[in-house]
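Appendix C reproduces, verbatim, an entry submitted by the partner laboratory led by Prof. M.T., so that reviewers can inspect both the input and the predicted structure.
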Amino acid sequence: MIFKDIIGNEKNKELLKRIIDTNNIAHSYMFVGKESIGKLLFAKEFAKAILCLNQEKPCYKCKSCIEFDSYNNPDFIILQPEENSIKIDQIRELTKKVYEKPVVSNKKVYIINDSDCMTKEAQNCLLKTLEEPPEYVTIILIASSENLFLPTIKSRCTKIQFKNLTKEELAEVLKQKYNYTNVSEITFNIAQRKRK
């Protein structure tokens, strides 16, 4: 089941699951929210479901899912900042690949992580692809703030806002990932402050 291992943002889980179930996938999304609340985890799981070759998505068994989990799916790319920004050359390289047909799946997914670090030149370069993307491409921009984007970039993306995890959800993450079960109030307050 999609998003089964991700804690928090239940409304976004339902929304993205509905998008997959109805196959009503947009060409571009903007996942916006504070740092370290799981936006990249959501984006990866969403990408895996988009690329899955079976009816139940993601199936974890098809060629696309297996290659995705082993970081070998040629139809999936994550672009990361280099030296604290995403530069025009990175976007030029991405836009070249966008027009290559999918290899394993029927679609291709590109995640641009920390996309609010894109230079203005890089954003302008990406804009043409967002305006006229190939039908098989989905681009997901992950950002902490949408204020650093050009209005033309924002207007081309379906925005999905992510919320901070609740105290109970943070406790569940600490329990599942780190086997911490007795977390003090002070620790929660520090964790919440770091997320602001």
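The chain has two domains: 10-163, 164-196. Additional entries are available on request from the coordinating office.
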